[in-house]
Amino acid sequence: MMKRLVFRIAVIISVLIPLGVATYEVLVSGKDSVVFLENYPPALGYAVLIYYGILLTGGLIWLIAQLKSLIRLKNENIQYELMHLNGQVNPHFFFNVLNNLYGLTAKNPPKAQELILKLSDMMRYSLHEGKKKRVPLTGEIHYLKNYIELHRMRYHKKISVDFISDAEEGLTVTPLLFIILLENAFKHGVENLRENAFVNVYLAAGTRQLHFRVENNFDPQEVPGDSGGIGLENLKRRLELLYPGRHQLKLTAHENIYQAELILERP
């Protein structure tokens, strides 16, 4: 507040100086025209020039500080939005698994225990690794495979799942980007099919690009993709914030086959 007051006073003074000099020249000296600081002592002229130099420098410093403040605020808003979006990642999946656990604890305790361990591993990953900017790609693959295994244990029907990964060692990736696409394959494909359900997952990563593709069959009477949910909108917004101009998300449906493909340009 004090800085703003000082700055405003300095601006007012800078306006009053030439006005005061001009008024004095016209009213007191009787001149028809005024040349600023004409016939004034050189010391006064230098003092006025130094004052305006300091004022200009101070104005530039203030402008730079305001721009930095705006950039910082924008980054903070982006981080807050990302945290909010991360918190919305597949919560209903965990609730569905917990509902399954309730029945399994009495009917099949060993299977329920295995389910609890995998669910705990996934929740731990979502809570801790999901907050990080980058995680090892191997950890993300393990998370996706755990998700697939939990679905295998949930259903009382045969599911064909093929997971192929081809990635270089030591690569990192933004966490929890792929789970939405994999979740949709089960939610809108496997869950609505009584038999012959399949999900094919392909992940390849090199030094320049990361390529993730999920393919599944679905009931032609059902709407494929993410109908009525926030999953895909969540993912699209996260990609806009994290990979602006450096991603491609392609969603296609042909007959009873749905394919989601995500390509990320590596930094």
Describe the protein.
The model has no long low-confidence stretch (mean pLDDT 76). Helix 1 runs antiparallel to helix 2 and helix 3 packs antiparallel against helix 4. The protein has two domains: 83 residues, no CATH class; 176 residues, Histidine kinase-like ATPase, C-terminal domain (Heat Shock Protein 90). Strands 2-4-5-7-6 form a five-stranded mixed beta sheet, covered by helices on one side. A two-stranded antiparallel sheet has the order 1-3. The protein has seven helices and seven strands. With 267 residues, the protein is α+β, with helices and mostly antiparallel strands.
Provide a short characterization of the protein structure:
The chain has 267 residues and is an alpha+beta fold. Helix content is 55%, strand content 18%. The radius of gyration is 32 Å and the shape is elongated.
Topology:
Elements: H1 2-27, H2 42-86, H3 91-107, H4 109-128, E1 135-136, H5 137-154, E2 159-167, E3 172-173, H6 179-187, E4 197-205, E5 209-217, H7 231-242, E6 247-254, E7 257-265
Parallel strand pairs: 2-4
Antiparallel strand pairs: 1-3, 4-5, 5-7, 6-7
Helix pairs in contact: 1-2, 3-4, 4-5
Number of helices: 7
CATH evolutionary superfamily of the largest domain: Histidine kinase-like ATPase, C-terminal domain
The second-level CATH architecture of the largest domain is: 2-Layer Sandwich
- The name CATH uses for the topology of the largest domain is Heat Shock Protein 90
Query: H/E order of the elements?
Result: HHHHEHEEHEEHEE
Shape: elongated
The main sheet comes to: 5 strands, mixed
How much strand content do the residues show?
15-25%
Low-confidence spans = none
CA-based gyration radius: 32 Å
CATH class category of the largest domain:
Alpha Beta
Percent helix among the residues?
55-70%
Distance between the termini: 41 Å
What class would the helix/strand composition place it in?
A: alpha+beta
Q: Give the mean pLDDT.
A: 76
**Sheet with most strands: strand arrangement:** 2-4-5-7-6
